[in-house]
């Protein structure tokens, strides 16, 4: 007989406001334990130094994690000029110093080269694998790897504050896989100095906004039972709210659920204007609920993920 999984079967999303000083996995495990949930995962790692939105998927919502990780993110961070650190944030050891401090105009002049589709060298202290080992494990062992540049998409990069000559505050809107620590490192170099991230907060992940976030303290409070904490769970479909919706009738959805593609000619007039006809993703609704994700490709609607 198959062993029964421990915990409650819960489906949906918790939008956690991760505090500073713990890893994303530690935060996930605390929430999972507080909810007594069978299955959970998170949508996009935050460094221990970072705070802000950490989407936690429960049950069937774990199937939508890749789409959340691909979505738009917004960050605020503060660069501390004058010190480079091996981790590119305030938790690392100082590896270089500089007396140079850029002006506001010099900072603004440097930002455009980091906007758009850029190539970025990830921090040595990252979770990327090198010959089967995590880069951060190699770095901690005193052998930081030489990581090759990777494509990164930065949609917006703005200077929003200058508390003093040593610090500058920024807002960044980006796509998947952009390292804020690397941006801080590279902007500092472009301004003729060195620097690292002193403060980092994530304000948005796709449809998940800061105002939706629940503090971790709520899940650690013994006064809250797993049943009472369930009110913080958002529906699975919330993660897909920024994906255009396409309604199918029962027969069409049955065909799609069997792996059959549907001609877009048969769906004329129903395809949302916001959907990209060239490999664009749509969320499928049937009988009033989200039932699948599908892709528009070569004149066909093709199933990608069923819920």
Mean pLDDT: 91
Main beta sheet: strand number and arrangement?
10 strands, mixed
Taking pLDDT < 50 over at least 5 consecutive residues as the criterion, the unreliable ranges are none
Give the overall form: globular
Could you say which structural class the secondary elements and strand pairing correspond to?
alpha+beta
Instruction: Give the count of helical stretches.
Output: 8
Q: Strand fraction band? A: 35-45%
Portion in helices: 10-25%
The value of Rg in angstroms is 22 Å
Total number of strands: 19
SSE ordering: EHEEHEEEHEEEHEEHEEEHHEHEEEE
Distance N terminus to C terminus? 26 Å
What is the topology?
Layout (H helix, E strand, L loop, with lengths): L11 E7 L5 H12 L4 E3 L8 E8 L6 H5 L3 E9 L1 E3 L8 E4 L6 H7 L5 E5 L8 E2 L2 E2 H6 L9 E15 L2 E8 L5 H11 L4 E11 L2 E2 L4 E2 H5 L5 H4 L15 E3 L2 H8 L4 E2 L17 E6 L2 E9 L2 E7 L1
Parallel strand pairs: 1-14, 3-12, 15-17
Antiparallel strand pairs: 1-3, 2-3, 4-11, 4-12, 5-6, 7-10, 8-9, 10-11, 12-13, 16-19, 17-18, 18-19
If you had to describe this structure to a student in words, what would you say it looks like?
The model has no long low-confidence stretch (mean pLDDT 91). Strands 1, 2, 3, 4, 7, 10, 11, 12, 13 and 14 form a 10-stranded mixed sheet that branches. This protein has a 5-stranded mixed sheet with strand order 15-17-18-19-16. A two-stranded antiparallel sheet has the order 5-6. The chain has helices spanning 24-35, 65-69, 104-110, 135-140, 180-190, 216-220, 226-229, 250-257; strands spanning 12-18, 40-42, 51-58, 73-81, 83-85, 94-97, 116-120, 129-130, 133-134, 150-164, 167-174, 195-205, 208-209, 214-215, 245-247, 262-263, 281-286, 289-297, 300-306. Helix content is 19%, strand content 35%. Strand 2 (40-42) and strand 3 (51-58) form a beta hairpin. It is an alpha+beta fold.
């Amino acid at each position: 007989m198959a062993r029964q999984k421990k915990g409650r079967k819960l489906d949906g999303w918790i939008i956690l406001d991760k505090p500073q000083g713990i890893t994303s996995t530690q935060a996930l495990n605390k929430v999972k334990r507080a909810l007594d949930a069978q299955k959970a995962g998170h949508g996009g790692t935050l460094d221990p130094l970072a705070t802000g939105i950490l989407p936690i998927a429960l049950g069937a919502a774990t199937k939508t994690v890749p789409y959340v990780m691909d979505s738009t993110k917004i960050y605020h961070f503060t660069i501390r000029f004058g010190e480079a650190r091996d981790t590119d944030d305030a938790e690392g050891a100082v590896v270089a110093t500089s007396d140079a401090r850029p002006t506001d105009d010099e900072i603004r002049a440097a930002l455009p080269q980091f906007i758009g589709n850029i190539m970025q060298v990830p921090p040595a202290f990252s979770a990327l694998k090198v010959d089967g080992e995590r880069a951060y494990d190699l770095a901690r062992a005193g052998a930081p790897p030489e990581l090759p540049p990777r494509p990164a998409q930065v949609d917006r990069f703005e200077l929003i504050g200058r508390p003093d000559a040593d610090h500058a505050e920024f807002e960044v809107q980006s796509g998947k896989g952009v390292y804020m620590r690397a941006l801080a490192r590279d902007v500092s170099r472009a301004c003729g100095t060195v620097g690292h991230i002193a403060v980092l907060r994530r304000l948005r992940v796709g449809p998940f906004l800061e105002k939706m976030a629940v503090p971790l303290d709520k899940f650690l409070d013994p006064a809250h039972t797993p049943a009472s904490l369930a009110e913080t769970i958002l529906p699975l479909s919330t993660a897909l709210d920024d994906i255009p919706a396409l309604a199918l009738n029962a027969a069409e959805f049955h065909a799609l659920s069997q792996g059959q593609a549907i001609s877009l000619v048969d769906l004329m007039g129903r395809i949302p204007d916001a959907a990209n006809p060239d490999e664009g993703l749509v969320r499928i609704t049937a009988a009033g609920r989200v039932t699948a994700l599908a892709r528009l490709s070569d004149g066909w609607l093709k199933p990608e993920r069923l819920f």
